[in-house]
Design goal:
single chain; 435 residues; alpha/beta; Rossmann fold; nine-stranded mixed beta sheet
Length: 435
């Protein structure tokens, strides 16, 4: 981390002079609005979610831009003429004036770029899911924990910053519906099933296909893979399907409200069964069993995607909810999606008074991270929390791919009854790529 010493010493001097900047180990000061205190941010992935995330940090100094598509890169460069440009994020991380990076690549690169950046003392904002494998999620979390007093992290579960999620968490944790022993989360997006795309297309001159593949297995270029996450995301080589993508957002609410951590088991039914070695499922139903912890009883959480839904409560057709979470308590049921929540049965809760809000409003998902980079204050989706969430979720895909209920030993990162799961818990990388 010595590469950033000069800048940090400058910022330390700035803080000592009263402007109050915290960055990578400079904790204990208050944030200031001095223009000299802007972060120097590098952008890894500039299109799609990358463009949105760059907009979220646009008031900072954008000093580096990286993308494997030179058309996207040149277009963004026009708006940031002073930023250095790269096609390989590994080279970008050697730029000495960086304070922080955003990572908005395909899933197979998320953990590598994030882990490399943290090892260099950089704060990181990474799109969801944080990792492409269970082992990666654990490793990125551990790297962050070892450096949490020196840098700030945030995973891109943007809806976590919304007020509705906060109110639902308060209702569950205040036991408005009593003890929750069963919960369901769902999303209507359906996977493709099938094999690899057929044929090989010429690689466009603007595309660095080998760098896009990164640590994934070598595959010939096919235009069916790109662009957009609903193309590459369907293949195991690059993504984790609806569970990895939308599960990061939807299961987040249950994970937060129920204070979940490591499950004791996970079991899957899906179509097709057995799993394709190449492609995510058309639909899945995954059940994680969670042991009792502190003041929370043991419970089951089930994920449904594609055409599947949990059984609808009276008066509510869940097939009309594109996504949502249902908490089933011994005193009632709570339904929620991104923007609304409903307590059931309605007549029982007609005069119900919700608890006073106890979770403070968010500064905004990107602003939380920027504020944390400058002050040392925590973010709500830091890599400690989000590492646990993604490790938990991706176990569902592991269980699907081996076709067995897994008994999970979290301490040793092992499915104790299923040694063949190891190949999916920890993936192999192409030569030249390391975590």
């Amino acid at each position: 981390m010595t590469r950033h010493t000069n800048r940090r010493e400058f910022l330390k001097g700035t803080a000592a002079a009263g402007t109050g900047f915290w960055l990578a180990g400079r904790a204990g000061a208050q944030e200031s609005n001095s223009p000299n205190e802007k972060l120097n941010v590098g952008i890894i992935g500039v299109n799609g979610r990358g463009r949105a995330n760059m907009g979220g940090v646009s008031k900072e100094n954008i000093v580096a831009l990286c993308d494997i598509d030179e058309n996207y890169l040149n277009k963004v460069k026009a708006a940031h003429p002073n930023a250095k440009t790269y096609v390989d994020w590994r080279k970008m991380l050697d730029q000495k004036d960086l304070d922080a990076v955003t990572v908005s690549t395909a899933d197979q690169v998320h953990a590598l770029a994030s882990n490399w950046a943290m090892k260099r003392g950089l704060s990181v904002y990474c799109e969801k899911p944080l990792a492409h494998s269970v082992h990666e999620a654990r490793t990125v979390r551990e790297t962050y924990i070892a450096n949490r007093d020196k840098l700030a992290t945030q995973m891109g579960t943007q809806i976590h910053a919304g007020n509705n999620y906060r109110r639902v968490v308060e209702l569950v944790q205040s036991k408005a519906i009593g003890e929750v022993r069963e919960a369901h989360a769902w999303c209507g997006r359906q996977g493709p099933g099938g094999g690899l795309p057929e044929g090989e297309d010429p690689v466009p001159e603007n595309l660095h296909w080998d760098l896009w593949l990164g640590p994934a297995p070598a595959r010939p270029y096919n235009k069916g893979y790109l662009p957009g996450n609903l193309t590459w995301n369907r293949w195991w080589d690059f993504g984790n399907g609806t569970l990895g993508d939308m599960g990061s957002h939807v299961i987040d609410l249950a994970f937060w409200a129920l204070k979940l951590r490591h499950p004791s088991s996970v079991e899957v039914v899906a179509d097709p069964m057995p799993a394709s070695p190449f492609t995510n499922a058309k639909w899945m139903e995954i059940t994680w069993e969670h042991p009792a912890v502190d003041d929370r009883p043991a419970l089951k959480l089930t994920w449904h995607d594609g055409i599947k839904r949990p059984e609808s409560p009276p008066g509510h057709d869940l097939t009309k909810w594109g996504l949502g979470v249902m908490f089933i308590g011994d005193k009632g049921t709570l339904l929620a999606d991104y923007g609304k929540h409903v307590l059931l049965p309605a007549d029982k809760f007609q005069d119900f008074q919700p608890p006073e809000p106890s979770i403070a409003p968010s500064l905004g998902h990107h602003q939380e991270w920027i504020h944390a980079c400058k002050t040392g204050e925590p973010t709500t989706c830091n890599f400690d929390y989000s590492g646990l969430l993604i490790e938990h979720n991706l176990l569902g895909n592991v269980a699907y791919r081996v076709g067995k209920k897994l008994q999970w030993d979290a301490a040793n990162l092992k499915a104790t009854n299923c040694p063949e799961a190891d190949q999916f818990i920890r993936r192999e990388y192409r030569e030249g790529w390391t975590l």
